[in-house]
Amino acid sequence: MRRATTITSFLLSRTLATATVHHRLLTTATTSSTSYSGRRWFSTGSAQTVSLGVAGAIASVAAVASLSAQGVYAKEPLPADLVPKEVVLYQYEACPFCNKVKAFLDYYDIPYKVVEVNPLSKKEIKWSEYKKVPILTVDGEQLVDSSAIIDKLGNKIVPNKRVNSASDDDEEKKWRGWVDSHLVHVLSPNIYRNTSEALESFDYITSQGNFSFTEKITVKYAGAAAMYFVSKKLKKKYNITDERAALYEAAETWVDALNGRQFLGGSKPNLADLAVFGVLRPIRYLRSGRDMVEHTQIGDWYTRMERVVGDSSRIKA
Question: What distance in Å separates the CA atoms of residue 247 and residue 252, rounded to the nearest whole number?
């Protein structure tokens, strides 16, 4: 937001530069669909002719101010030479850990393919000794465990991504740990709270994968029934007495951690922001997620994250 304000002042004082600056701002702030050899990378938007006159300057300033007021944020795409050639994610569509990885890939605009794993047979990952998801292969190298995947991938493709103070690093680490040790554990008891919500979740899951009709029916009903009982065990294991209350408390804990900031990372999301957003994304439009946004203050932050992460960089089969 501070950057947009600075640019607005610049435009007012230098009318002749308005067209170029305005075009770059709009391209950066609003373009999310890109391509590079069939992969999403370079902008496909065509240049627009903008008046260099006083009227053009006023219109440009107004547009920038409007973008600032709306809180429009940009992704952090990588230089082309740092983008891996082939990234494949083996996942369950509703898995919070898988969605953590996808949030990272989407934010940095890294193209990736998805292989939906059958949660009953797991035939798609028979080749791996690691029998869980997510599994990410990057140019043939296998990476496992969501937090480790993000750390290893980040070190390879986003070295020195930002200069943080030690306290910033500690805060990011603390809240990434909170996501793995607490937040994810309140999700399953909410997603599979009762049979109707369990079926709602598995209806979403089976609509995403390449399942045959028979597999869809089997996975939907057998999976929903299994997870309903698993969620009850998780509820007991983590001493959760009221699923929704636990979810609301976790959401408000995160909002408190922001302490008035746009993101935990300040003006841009850090890895903790991406982790929280990632694990919440698969429930956002399920009944549990709708209830969470309605009954807590997390909605504004979540909307900002949706804007900055933007469209998925997933390669459609």
Answer: 9
